[in-house]
Amino acid sequence: MKHLLGIKPLSVADIELIFQTADEFKEVINRPIKKVPSLRDITIANVFFENSTRTRISFELAEKRLSADVVNFSASSSSVKKGETLLDTVQNILAMKVDMVVMRHSSVGAPHFLAKHVPANIINAGDGTHEHPTQALLDAYSVRERLGEVGGKRIAIIGDIMHSRVALSNIFAFQKLGAELMVCGPTTLIPKYIGSLGVRVETDVRKALAWCDVANVLRIQLERQQIKYFPSLREYRLYYGITKKMLEQLDKEIVVMHPGPINRGVELSSDAADSSQAIILDQVENGVAVRMAVLYLLAGGRSGI
Ligand code: CP
């Protein structure tokens, strides 16, 4: 594969290869010297047209741990502000001999458009409400790490499904690996097509928690909402906010995930987010190893780890 634009084109064997490679890189990043020379001939541009903390730092660290040369581009401080187009921006960056582009953009399909028009490898770091493939890979990797396997597990994705790019990539990745999927949230935040993807739909968060082995909790993505989908954040918290007490009332210990950023006290209380059931910071740690694996494999994976 030349690009990573979404999860759908990946086979189960591809995902397992990414996980096995990430296992090796996880060992590398826990050594005193966390660097390998695998991508020392490669230059990578991180082109972010939207805000990011985790994904951007995680990709940059992954690239540096692989000894790639790295340039960072932020639309807010660039000539995009003077009217330069996406294609012109990226073609100018590539003219400086860049091999791979990691891109986040608010428009659905922006990395797919780029992949058709430029010769570099393109990695989708989140395109609008569409997909966030490396997040889904690190999420599935983290479940595999915590529970031993993904196959047969029940995964509930809870929150703003409608405006989430994590939800769709998670559904594709977890289903490929043999998990059962449920989405849960207010009906106004669940897309009508979602049932056609073979997922259960639930509006009662307590039923979703009782059903699942893993709850992947999503934030309300107000920045992508043009109209009001629920009366207030206070009311959302009352009906859908997950607390440690709710977790303790279950007859089993479930795993709690969140892709970040968390809106503490809205979708997840602090005592739930910081509980031993939460693997939120494990997800972040695993993100570096999984992204190292993706970059290494897309670059050809021949130089030896
Ligand atoms: N999970 C995630 O994409 O976080 P950022 O928006 O901080 O990159």
What does this structure look like?
39% of the residues lie in helices and 15% in strands. Helix 5 crosses helix 11. It contains eleven helices and nine strands. With 305 residues, it is an alpha/beta fold. It has a five-stranded parallel sheet, with helices on both faces. Strands 2-1-3-4 form a four-stranded parallel sheet, with helices on both faces. Strand 1, helix 2 and strand 2 form a beta-alpha-beta unit. It folds into two domains: 133 residues, 3-Layer(aba) Sandwich (Rossmann fold); 151 residues, 3-Layer(aba) Sandwich (Rossmann fold), CATH 3.40.50. The two termini are 19 Å apart. Phosphoric acid mono(formamide)ester (CP) binds next to helix 2.
Summarize this entry quickly.
It is built from eleven helices and nine strands. With 305 residues, the chain is of the alpha/beta class. The chain has helices at 12-29, 54-65, 86-95, 110-117, 133-147, 165-176, 205-211, 233-240, 244-248, 270-273, 280-298; strands at residues 43-48, 69-74, 100-105, 121-127, 154-158, 180-184, 200-202, 214-217, 255-257.
